[in-house]
Design goal:
595 residues, alpha/beta, Gyrase A, domain 2, Isoleucyl-tRNA Synthetase, Domain 1, 24 helices, 55% helix
Length: 595
């Protein structure tokens, strides 16, 4: 990767000026304007300030000690001390050759085995007793993308779907089941009937709360929940009966999104561990008892983390602490990522502090928080009746709209099965990409029209770019795999590479721009994972698609001026398609061969 190579070469030069080079090496970045070269190093100014020397003098010292003649032309010092770097075309082509030849990883190295970590990624985590809704899409697709990227980097990744299968929502289902069940409807469609019961009980509680100081229905729900947790035979039987139906419905959505988990350990799995967890924390004086309740107090904070109520009931925090203990013992992770919305920020702040008090200091604990999905009115996205939008219906509508687009643009009389599959990939991909392309901590407005647009930063545009590249090979009747393998085995892979024009390559500016962008794919993944932000990768893919569009307009491929240039450009096109495909795959999105 270009940037990492430049950092390696700059490090010895900087070590003669400063002891800590890492922050300054981060100041080597791609140039925003080609007239300033391909990369710029801007560390001379802050180093000069630290040393009390003129910036251009510091820049000159750095340049004189650089050993980069094999990578680029002599560095140029500009302005107050910017160091401009222009790579040799031969060096660019050498890197392209390696990426072209590596069919699996595009020459992106896996992490050094010595730096390989075990990541546990906790994401999705819906409440089982009710249908998944639009709010679950963010945790699900962000967590999946992070897990995919970490695996691609070479880390050991364990995914765990921490289902809400034991809380108050089941008390609502049990109360509804006992008092309002339509047996015929339940036999015909159990999930739909369970959803109706949940909504009915929820509505009754809301209505009573408005009219009364306390809701009798809510009291009944809490009673049913307590009986379930105490092992009541009848309630356990209902729980065991309805749980598989709910899980089946959730799994159908995961199948549509092509998402799977290594483990699905819900709250009920940890229930037998909770009493011991509380007692252990009391014995270690990490938790204290106050007025019958048990909590963990943190220095400088008035609000404790409650882990047992005065009536003996446990809380979410208790379950999460037991979960941490189990995960550390069973999986031995180096890092645990919780992909959960921002409203749980205080909870995770307390959880992480509690875990540190328990003596866990080496494991990274990160709350990968995210904002809310909004409707076009700027409020949380809901149906006209005010209900939260169901995720299944959301996916159905995306596929329906995508089918209309595919059908209208079909010029090849494709079979209906192909149109449906293409619509499914475009519709689902549009929803996933629309979410991942946002800064995860920001709210975003959900709009089918925008996410399915053929232009702009959308999955549809990326999929179209991929299909457009592939069409070149179809039109020219060229086997891309055979082409790249033939060239890799020929002179392009040997010391003399004149057979494909690589050694003496003279790139068209648009060709060169595309090549440089292609060679930054690995670094875009690194940057995405630096702060767990998939939108860094989506921004890279969008820029790559834009550069390909310029290349496509300015650089003839099938009608190139010579066979050498034609081959080189075909290989660039092929690498572009493979990079787009791999990038979208890391986001959990499929490509389509034609649109």
């Amino acid at each position: 990767m270009i940037l990492s190579t430049l950092k390696t070469r700059f490090a010895p030069a900087l070590q003669t000026l400063v002891s800590d080079t890492d922050a300054y090496l981060e100041m080597i970045r791609p140039s925003q304007d080609p007239k300033f070269g391909d990369f710029q190093a801007n560390m001379a100014m802050p180093i000069a300030k630290k040393l009390g020397k003129p910036p251009r003098e510091v820049a000159q010292i750095i340049v004189e000690q650089l050993d980069i003649g094999d990578l680029c032309a002599p560095p140029e010092i500009a302005g107050p001390g910017f160091i401009n770097l222009r790579l040799h075309d031969e060096f660019i082509q050498t890197l392209l050759d390696k990426a072209i030849a590596d069919e699996e990883r595009l020459a992106i190295p896996a992490v050094d085995p010595a730096k390989r970590k075990t990541y546990l990624v906790d994401y999705s985590g819906p409440n089982v007793a009710k249908p998944m809704h639009v709010g679950h899409i963010r945790s699900t697709v962000i967590g999946n993308a992070l897990a995919r990227m970490l695996r691609f980097q070479g880390h050991h990744v364990i995914t765990d779907n921490h289902l809400g299968d034991w809380g108050t929502q089941f008390g609502m289902i049990i109360h509804g089941y006992k008092n309002h069940l339509d047996k015929a409807a339940y036999q015909e469609n159990p999930v739909e009937e369970l959803s109706r019961l949940y909504r009915l009980v929820r509505q009754k509680i809301d209505e009573e709360t408005k009219q009364l100081a306390a809701s009798p229905c809510e009291a009944n729900v809490l009673q049913e929940t307590a009986k379930l947790h105490a092992g009541d035979t009848e309630n356990l039987k209902i729980w065991q009966e309805v749980l598989p139906h709910s899980k089946d419905e959730i799994n159908r959505i995961y199948d549509r999104l092509q998402i799977s988990f290594d483990h699905t350990l819900g709250e009920s799995f940890y229930q037998p561990m909770l009493a011991d967890t509380v007692e252990n924390l009391l014995q270690r004086k990490i938790a204290v008892e106050t007025e019958g309740a048990v909590g963990i107090f943190f220095e400088g904070e008035k609000v404790p983390m409650l882990i047992r109520k005065s009536d003996g009931a446990f809380l979410y925090g208790t379950t999460d602490l037991a979960t941490v203990e189990y995960r550390l013992k069973t999986f031995k992770p180096d890092a645990v990522l919780y992909v959960v919305d921002f409203r749980q920020s205080q909870h995770f702040d307390h959880l992480f502090k509690a875990v540190r008090l328990m003596g866990v200091s080496e494991v990274e604990l990160t709350h990968v928080k995210f904002g809310t999905v909004l409707g076009e009115d700027g409020k949380p996205f809901k149906t006209r009746s005010g209900d939260t939008v169901g995720l299944n219906g959301l996916l159905d509508e995306a596929e329906r709209r995508a089918y209309q687009i595919v059908k209208e643009n079909d010029k090849n009389d494709a079979p209906e099965s192909e149109l449906r599959e293409t619509a499914q990939r475009i519709g689902i991909g549009a929803i996933i990409y629309a979410d991942l392309s946002q800064n995860r901590e920001s709210d975003y407005v959900f709009s089918y029209d925008k996410m399915l647009a053929m232009t702009g930063n959308t999955a549809t545009y990326m999929q179209y770019a991929f299909a457009r590249v592939r069409s070149i090979f179809t039109k020219g009747n060229i086997d891309a795999v055979q082409l790249r393998r033939t060239v890799s085995r020929s002179a392009c892979g040997a010391q003399s590479r004149s057979a494909c024009g690589a050694h003496h390559a003279v790139f068209h500016p648009a060709e060169r721009s595309l090549a440089l962008e292609l060679l930054q794919f690995g670094e875009s993944i690194d940057l995405s994972l630096r702060d767990y932000r998939p939108n860094v990768l989506t921004a890279y893919l969008f820029e790559l698609s834009n550069r390909y569009s310029v290349f496509f307009e300015q650089c003839p491929v099938l009608k190139a001026e010579s066979d050498e240039v034609r081959t080189r450009r075909l290989l660039l096109c092929d690498l572009t398609a493979r990079t787009l495909q791999k990038g979208l795959e890391l986001l959990g999105i499929e490509t389509v061969e034609r649109m």
